[in-house]
Amino acid sequence: MKRFIPFFVFLYGITISKSQINLVPNPSFEIKTLCNVGLPFYPPWDSPSDGSPDVFDTCYSGVPNNTYGFQYPRTGYVYVGASLFGSRSDDREYLQVQLTSALIAGHKYHTSFYTSPSKRGNYNISSEQIAINNIGMFFNNTHVYNPNTLRLNYIPQINETTIISDTANWTLVSGNYIAQGGEKYITIGNFNTHTDTIGVLYHNNYSAAYYFIDDVTVRDCTNDGVEEMGKGNINIIPNPATKEIMLTSNQKLKTILIYNVLGSVVYQQLTTNNQQLSIDISTWNAGVYFVEVETEKGVVRKKVVKQ
Q: How many CB atoms lie within 10 A of CB 35?
């Protein structure tokens, strides 16, 4: 467990660089009004569906040993737990929070949280833990609230496709997301259907995949380690395009990365010394893409539309 960092040090860190600001309020669930376990979440977190995730605090007997397993907080004194999968139904629980500011269109955000599967799937000590894949984060412009359903039918922009089964340590789930603009809320959980979720360690009786979660981060990393060039130094023609785009510059093109709106790289060219480059986009899905080009003078980012 890490030692407590004074609040004034935290404020000082914020003033150093805007790119280091975490947009997630109460990211490790430390702010609390009561010392207890269970709902309501420590503010401003809430539950958007019929499920009821739990809060575990070291001032309560639920940490490190609780009915679901044994785990210390990754940082601080608190973590939360949620059932992300049931062996016989679409049992789901989710965590939701409003970001401190809306995301900016075209900006790249680094997102992450830590998770650890419990050793027991439910309160029944004899039940078996299930480890699953498809634990993700969904960005949305509006507050999600559907108390009459278990599984939320959304496609998460950040999704861990490998099975997370390490019960002793905290596992990092992370990814980059290119904002469409205006996203204000994040929701963490398993959004996949029962058949699309891969689970291991099934038990003959009813079991569930129960995961602890701590340290959630969303931060703007658009300008991390790069110098933005003037937009006029890179031209993309045609734009919009259907089959091919041409990148031209008065400087030599060095590294070229193109992302889709989910932050996934769809094209990369790491070694070129030409001042122009033709890229075939005929097989890409229609939509908005973000082009990141490094030249001798720095990096520029532009948007291109595939029709």
A: 12
